[in-house]
């Protein structure tokens, strides 16, 4: 709570790194990371932001043998690549998973594209601290124990293609991301990605439009919850 308190106070004028003991320098970095970011919030997020379990996936199921199936070759390749990058010491390479139509996180429902187009469209990060991206959930699956709870859950996501760096000058919404969002191409990126569902941040609203200076149709994406402004 102390760190959260410090991060949300307007204390910038009260500290200077050269005047603080070295042991407190990390607090300056934490505060800067939060102070320098603009956030879009919701009442629910603000109320529960200090709760340790807020943002965890709601899991109450106990899985039985009939709930398990085998990952396809392509999905298993994504899983192995993800584990090699993010959990290199893990030996959990089982192809036997529980396929999920939906999960609940932040008290919101996230589904695969087949179940609901709107509930599948999400803002996500591929890792902690990574920039946010927009995409649609193609599938959700979990590692679990027969007769036991879920151990870990992933989502297969098809991202929307980002606009070229040279085109960002025409993305005027990017200058006001807290209220304006940003542009993506209105088409899929070439490859799907796998993310831990804890890196699913929120849903987004969107509008397809033509933008002068950018060839082809764009998608204006507006996240519907707190996300960092950096793109």
**Averaged pLDDT, please?**
81
Q: Order of strands across the biggest sheet?
A: 5-6-7-8-11-10
First-residue to last-residue Cα separation: 29 Å
CATH topology of the largest domain: SH3 type barrels
Number of helices: 6
Approximate shape: globular
What is the CA-atom radius of gyration, in angstroms? Answer: 20 Å
The SS-based structural class is alpha+beta
Give unreliable regions as ranges: 35-41, 47-54
The CATH level-2 architecture of the largest domain is identified as: Roll
- Note the run of SSEs as H and E: HHHEHEEEHEEEHEEEE
In total, how many domains does the architecture comprise?
2
Question: How would the blueprint of this fold be written?
Answer:
Layout: H1 2-7, H2 25-35, H3 43-48, E1 68-70, H4 73-86, E2 96-100, E3 102-105, E4 108-111, H5 117-120, E5 121-124, E6 133-144, E7 150-162, H6 177-180, E8 182-188, E9 193-196, E10 200-210, E11 217-223
Antiparallel strand pairs: 1-2, 2-6, 3-4, 5-6, 5-10, 6-7, 7-8, 7-9, 8-11, 10-11
Q: How would you characterize this protein structure?
A:
The structure is a single chain. Strand 3 (about 100-105) and strand 4 form a beta hairpin. This protein has helices at about 1-5, 25-35, 45-50, 75-85, 115-120, 175-180, and strands spanning about 70, 95-100, 100-105, 110, 120-125, 135-145, 150-160, 180-190, 195, 200-210, 215-225. The strands form two sheets. It has a six-stranded antiparallel beta barrel. It has a two-stranded antiparallel ribbon with strand order 3-4. The protein contains six helices and eleven strands. It is of the alpha+beta class. The model is unreliable at about 35-40 and about 45-55 (pLDDT under 50). The protein folds into two domains: about 1-35, no CATH class; about 65-225, SH3 type barrels, CATH 2.30.30.
């Amino acid at each position: 709570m102390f760190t959260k308190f410090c991060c949300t106070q307007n204390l910038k004028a009260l500290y200077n790194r050269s005047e603080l003991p070295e042991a407190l320098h990390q607090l300056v970095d934490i505060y800067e990371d939060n102070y320098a970011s603009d956030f879009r919030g919701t009442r629910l997020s603000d109320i529960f932001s200090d709760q340790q379990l807020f943002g965890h996936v709601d899991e109450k199921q106990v899985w039985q043998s009939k709930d398990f199936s085998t990952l396809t070759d392509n999905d298993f390749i994504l899983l192995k690549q993800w584990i090699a990058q993010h959990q290199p010491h893990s030996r959990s390479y089982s192809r036997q998973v529980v396929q999920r139509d939906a999960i609940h996180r932040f008290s919101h429902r996230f589904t695969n594209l087949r179940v609901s187009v709107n509930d599948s469209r999400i803002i996500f990060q591929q890792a902690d601290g990574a920039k946010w991206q927009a995409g649609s959930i193609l599938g959700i699956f979990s590692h679990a124990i027969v007769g036991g709870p879920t151990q870990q859950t992933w989502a297969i996501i098809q991202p929307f293609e980002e606009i070229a760096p040279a085109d960002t000058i025409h993305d005027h919404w990017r200058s006001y991301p807290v209220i304006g969002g940003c542009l993506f191409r209105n088409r899929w990126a070439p490859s799907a990605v796998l993310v831990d569902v804890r890196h699913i941040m929120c849903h987004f609203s969107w509008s397809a439009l033509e933008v002068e200076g950018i060839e082809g149709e764009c998608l204006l994406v507006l996240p519907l919850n707190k996300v960092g402004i950096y793109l």
